């Protein structure tokens, strides 16, 4: 695969990339430090950075493993529901949140408290569009997957029956009354 092909298949969500750049720029122009010991920030930041990179690498490897022929990140050949995709429908986005948060903590920058959620909110409509495409492409298979695996992080789910958010392991089901 040529370098352009490699670049096209890198999971670089624009919201997080811009968020990181904006965060570093704001931190340089208007430094705002997090309270607490910088050594603790650096340790947690390094852990998040490595965890995010590992999660992205694992998700990408799982996607490639489920691909026959030429791999194209934006053109899935099958619905991947194993590996990190068994816990999150979008583990690469979550990995980038960890990377973004980790970089901010490494810098002890309070700006990360604004840039991570803003970047995630900016990306969310694209994720919803991605899921519409997966729904069209994989139909009932994606519907069943969507029911059992949260969009981003385990622990928060939207119950289809009740239309409410529920904690992990808790399901709100509308039952007919007799």
UniProtKB/TrEMBL annotation:
<keyword id="KW-0489">Methyltransferase</keyword>
<keyword id="KW-0812">Transmembrane</keyword>
<dbReference type="InterPro" id="IPR007318">
    <property type="entry name" value="Phopholipid_MeTrfase"/>
</dbReference>
<protein>
    <submittedName>
        <fullName>Isoprenylcysteine carboxylmethyltransferase family protein</fullName>
    </submittedName>
</protein>
<dbReference type="InterPro" id="IPR052527">
    <property type="entry name" value="Metal_cation-efflux_comp"/>
</dbReference>
<dbReference type="GO" id="GO:0032259">
    <property type="term" value="P:methylation"/>
</dbReference>
<dbReference type="GO" id="GO:0012505">
    <property type="term" value="C:endomembrane system"/>
</dbReference>
<dbReference type="Pfam" id="PF04191">
    <property type="entry name" value="PEMT"/>
</dbReference>
<feature type="transmembrane region" description="Helical">
    <location>
        <begin position="39"/>
        <end position="61"/>
    </location>
</feature>
<keyword id="KW-1133">Transmembrane helix</keyword>
<keyword id="KW-0472">Membrane</keyword>
<keyword id="KW-0808">Transferase</keyword>
<dbReference type="GO" id="GO:0008168">
    <property type="term" value="F:methyltransferase activity"/>
</dbReference>
